[in-house]
Amino acid sequence: MTETSDLVARRVTVDFTGVRADWNQVHPEFGHLTNAMSLMLPFMEPFFIKTMREAKKRLPAGPSALKRDIDLFNFQEGRHYSNHARLNDIIRAAHPEPVTEGEARLRADYQRYWARGHKFALAYTEGFETVAPLLCDYFFGNLHRFGLDSGEAAAYLWLWHVAEEHEHRTVANYVYHELYRDYRYRVFGILFATWHVFAFSLPIAGRTLLDARRRMTARERWHSRARYARLLAGMFGMFLPQLALRACRPGYDPADLEPHPDARALLDEALARFGEATPRGAGEPA
Ligand SMILES: [Fe+2]
Ligand SMILES: [Fe+2]
């Protein structure tokens, strides 16, 4: 287990001026699925922050590298969800009914999850944080296919977000090991978080896609269905073996995962394009 990491607090604010809910013209189905996932983040990431703040109180007294990383993790998650919340305003305006219904469900879900206790909250957090670096590799490995190299602000948001997810991949895992070290429960957390993400996002994406397909010709509708089926098959075909063969193993250490070379470069670029770095050691930046 590595005790120190290289997290950077980037004060990124993506400019969504002129962005539409159907921002992805290269792979519209990918746009709908990631829009549905985006809706979760202003509920999910505050839950992570709350969980990690509570974890900090439960760790041994005194300063430590892990506590410093928790602060930086919380800073990054805070920037993620505040940027996604602004994209979600655009998605909600285009699809008010499924989005407001979905958001009400998420509010209730995370209240229930918090009531299940800190071990559950941290296992859920760790579960998502185990899946997120895989998402990073998948997105950066398919930049062109998914229209993520378009320069669109929403595409940029996702690339910056998943690149930082890869950057802070060790934090929740190391905190979980410090506090609970329960292997089976960790696997449960991974499965539960993965189930929750897809149980929420697939039906929402299905509904917004149905809306979009009403404006398509019969031929375009068939192409759309085929593209969506290929997207899901590719995504699950990547995730499931990676989770089963690597991330769920007892000796899994997220520090061993190498970042995609383009992800590192994008983080520097994101800073130049949309933000500023916050000096380290300043506690948990607001
Ligand atoms: Fe995040
Ligand atoms: Fe994260």
Structural summary, described in words:
The protein is mainly α. The chain is built from nine helices and two strands, in the order βαααααααααβ. It has helices at 28-58, 65-94, 96-115, 118-141, 153-167, 171-179, 183-213, 218-247, 261-274, and strands spanning 9-12, 275-278. α1 (28-58) runs antiparallel to α7 and α2 (65-94) packs antiparallel against α3 (96-115). The protein is globular, with a radius of gyration of 18 Å. The protein starts with 8 loop residues before the first strand and ends in an 8-residue tail after the last strand. The model is unreliable at 279-286 (pLDDT under 50). The site of one fe (ii) ion (FE2) has 5 residues, from α4.
Beta-strand content bin: under 5%
Based on DSSP secondary structure assignment, what is the total number of beta strands?
Answer: 2
What hetero molecules are in the model? Answer: fe (ii) ion
3D shape = globular
Structural class label: mainly alpha
Rg to the nearest angstrom?
Answer: 18 Å
> Span from first to last CA?
28 Å
Low-confidence stretches: 279-286
Number of domains: 1
Q: What order do the helices and strands follow?
A: EHHHHHHHHHE
Essential attributes:
single chain, 286 residues, mainly alpha, two-stranded antiparallel ribbon, 9 helices, 2 strands, 71% helix, globular, disordered C terminus, binds fe (ii) ion, Metal-dependent hydrolase, membrane, UCP07580
